Amino acid sequence: MKYYIFSLIFILLISPAITALALRRTIGVDDQKENQVLEIFEDNEFTSSFVSPKDHLTSVLLKLKNSEIRNSEPINFSLYSDSEKIREVFFNGVNVGVGSWIRLSFGEITNSMNKTYHFSITSPSSTKENSIGIHTDEKGIPAIITYHKIDSYPTLVLGIYSQFFRKLLMDGPFFILWFSILFFSIILLLPNVDRKLNALNPFRR
Question: What is the pLDDT of residues 76-90, one digit of tens each?
Fold first, then answer.
């Protein structure tokens, strides 16, 4: 019974921290809204921008589409800061499926927090018939996720717990259930702890 209680407490309180320590990257921008696909071919490039919410930017994920897997042409991703090209990634249509997230990894940008980055995707040798598509919302903002290298695990763990409890407090029924399980687990565990203390201390009778 006590092992069951310990397991419950571990799952409820400690497992998020253990999970965090196993991570190498953390998510920054996370915008997955999409309802259209814009085409990239010849001189028809795609451009957009994002604001990095964290330092140590290492990769951008974009949702691209290679209709019927016909395109194997070169594709170029360029990242700009203040009109200066700072990173570039080359890949081709073979890497793109029919609506798949493509990770564009590059050298770490250390001081990236709160900075605006512009990017472009081009494929001059693609044609309209075998164009590369990019998933966006109705305003042309792409579905995008950014990843950042973790520089402080204590800060990450605190952030995870802060976000967890913030969401917990917003969901009343789940908070009551979670707190009840934790409370009664601790209540059930206390008699076992007290008996062990009595056994170890001959003066406690």
Answer: 999 999 999 999 999
